[in-house]
Structure formats: C-alpha cells, structure tokens
Amino acid sequence: MMTHPVNLSEYRHRRERTMTAQRILVVEDEADIAALVEMHLKDQHYAVTVCDDGARGLEHALAGGWDLLLLDIRLPGCDGLEICKRLRAQGDHTPVMFVSAKTTELDRVLGLELGADDYLVKPFSVLELVARVKALLRRHEQTSATTAETAALSEALVSGAIAVDLPSRSVTVAGNPVELTAREFDLLVHFMRSPGRVFNRAELLDQVWGYGYEGYEHTVNSHINRLRGKIEENPAHPDHIVTVWGVGYKMASGT
C-alpha cells in the first residue's frame, strides 16, 4: 500500500473545518421560502443566517467569513445583483447562488456575468437546492485546495498568448489583463491543464461546476461563449477553446 507524508498543519485545518459548521448567508425577503431553506440547510448541519433586507444582506456579505451566499434578486433596499457585484469588486470569491423567480435567459446571463456560480429558479425542489449547495461548497473547497497545491509547484499556466497566474487568479492575453468571473477562471484553468483533451458538457458540469443535472448543459455553452468573447481574437472562429462537433470542447494544443 502506498503511503504519503502527513502535512500536520493541513490535517489540523481539515479537522477544524469538519468540527465547524460551514456558514451560509441567505438573503430572501419571502418569509415562507426563507424559513423552508433555513430549515433544510440546518438539517444538513450548516450554520445559517437569514436576512430579509438587501441593505443588511450587503453589510453581512461584505463582512466576510461566509462559505456560501444564497441571494434572491428582487430585494428591498439593495437587490441581489448589486450584492454579488459589490462582493466580487472587493475580490471576494465566496460561492454565490441566485434563487429567484426571474426566469429570462437575460437575467441568468447577467447574474453569471456578475460572478455568480449558480442560478436556481423559483419554484424549486428543496432536494435540488440542497444538492447544489453541497456541490458548490465541495467544488469551492476542491478548487481552493488544488490552486494551493498547484501554486506550490507552478505559479503560472501558459497557452500561446494566454497566461494565467494561479495565486492571484489573474489572466492576461497577449500581455493585456482580462477580467474573468470565478467560474470562467476555473473553466479556463481546467482546459489549460489538459490541452488537447476533449471534454463533453456533462464532464465539464461535473468537474468544474461540481454537479451534473440533465438539462443544464446550456450553462456550459453560455460560459464558454462568454469566455471566448474575452480571450479569443475572433470568438466566432476560436483558436484556443475549440468545438469538437458532436463531442464537446478542448483547449487547442500549441496555440
């Protein structure tokens, strides 16, 4: 059996994490929905704080220390989009899930563009909400751990004109800085770590988003389209992240 040396500080950190409930901020002004979400998340042993006002929700969010934020979009005082925007503006990459009755594609795209990690439409299944909360938290922990481990070996990834600095989570294309959302950054890094490998949509949902649900493949498509718009010279004819028709997507080798 192969054994590995124990990192004592990492062991202590993981043990402390398991002994401390993960903290979730729920900003929702519909009392019945807020109570339902709070009850089911507490059943999963999360520490849940509920806010029914956008302005107070913003204060709580900016104070930090959260593992996940569940934000309604339409809120009194300050809407969920503004909370997410302000959070990302200060460099906070805490996972954000929008839970909203707004259902248009434009609303979803706007939320994702502002840096949200997921979007769930009301009315929703509580079981799906809990599953996606678990997936986001698990993915965030895995990404943080992987980034830290990779940074110890190599602080940068380079593919042609694209350069990624892992510790600072910054990207440049031909020397020019490019602003990516947290999910776009994770997606780009995932491709760059496996140049030439083809990923289908289901694999990307599982490996980058941390969950797989039939019917959510359009989420992958929209993120790749936005990512291409930021890193490709001609997004309509991409040189970096290319489509393998009938299969999926890959990072072109030697770009």
In short:
The chain is 46% helix and 18% strand. The chain is an alpha/beta fold.
Report on the architecture of this protein.
This protein is of the alpha/beta class and 255 residues long. The chain has 2 domains: 118 residues, 3-Layer(aba) Sandwich (Rossmann fold); 98 residues, Arc Repressor Mutant, subunit A (Orthogonal Bundle). It has 9 helices and 11 strands. The chain has a 5-stranded parallel sheet, with helices on both faces. A 4-stranded antiparallel sheet has the order 6-7-8-9, with helices on one face. A two-stranded antiparallel sheet has the order 10-11. The longest helix is centred in the middle third of the chain and has 28 residues. The N and C termini lie far apart (41 Å).
Give a quick set of tags describing it.
single chain; 255 residues; alpha/beta; Rossmann fold; Arc Repressor Mutant, subunit A; four-stranded antiparallel beta sheet; 11 strands
CATH architecture of the largest domain: 3-Layer(aba) Sandwich
Q: What is the helix fraction of residues, given as a range? A: 40-55%
> Ends: how far apart?
41 Å
Largest sheet entry: 5 strands, parallel
Indicate the structural class: alpha/beta
How many beta-strand elements?
11
Q: CATH homologous superfamily of the largest domain?
A: Response regulator
Number of domains: 2
How many distinct helices? 9
Q: Strand-and-helix sequence, N→C?
A: HEHEHEHEHEHEEEEHHHEE
Q: How much of the residues is beta strand, in percent?
A: 15-25%
Gross geometry: globular
What CATH first level of the largest domain would be assigned?
Answer: Alpha Beta
Quote the average pLDDT: 82
**Uncertain segments:** 1-19
Going across the biggest sheet, name each strand in turn. Answer: 2-1-3-4-5
Supply Rg: 19 Å
CATH fold group of the largest domain? Rossmann fold
